[in-house]
Give the backbone structure.
Amino acid sequence: MQVGLHGDSSLYTKHNAKKGSVKGDLMHALGGCSIVFEPIAGGGIPDVTASVLSRPHCSTVLISIFGNGLETTRHQGLENHLIPLLQAVRSKSDRAVFFIGGFAAKYGYPPVFDENMDRIRRFLHTSGAVVLDGKEQVAKWSLAPDHLHFDSVNKPEMVQFWLTALQQAKALPAVECSHVVAWAPTDRPPPPARAIMNRWSARNAQPSPPPPPPILAVVPAPAAQMLGQ
């Protein structure tokens, strides 16, 4: 059995300026099985997708995303990044679980950060993935002095959480083109309509362009699982 963990810096700890790896702790807890461990400092969703595609197939994969780049602005077309991630994880694993654990209150970010993270959770959940937010656990894990990474004192609790998460992993459903759901995030409000038109503009007014096509994602047959709600 080979287990893969891909994600951002939520996959490691820090004590002062020293980075603490938890790969050895997790490998020991799993009985010495082979582990693909790929934390990406500052990595966003496309980086995690590329990491998954570049590594070997694993029986079980855990994806950990804490929202790098989503801290202060409502991200336009966020769902467009999630579809390739789902496709990559499905092609590179038999089972998967997604840990989407960032919360504004933990890091002092504005409310828009929680909106972005909730969109990620909702999209993955609707697409049939097992999604964990770990809200209670994340609230307890103390931060390092940089106020960004988890302190190394949390290693035992973090490893135990990942072990429990890996046990909940399930196969992602197959993509079926006949079953789709439209996602059209409204990141920008539409421009206000002109209230007054003169005779020339009324006669020569051009029809409004059609709306952009929706973003499509698969709607799975099996029910997904959302924890921490």
Observations:
- Confidence is low (pLDDT under 50) at residues 176-203, 211-225.
- Residues 104 and 111 are 6 Å apart (CA to CA).
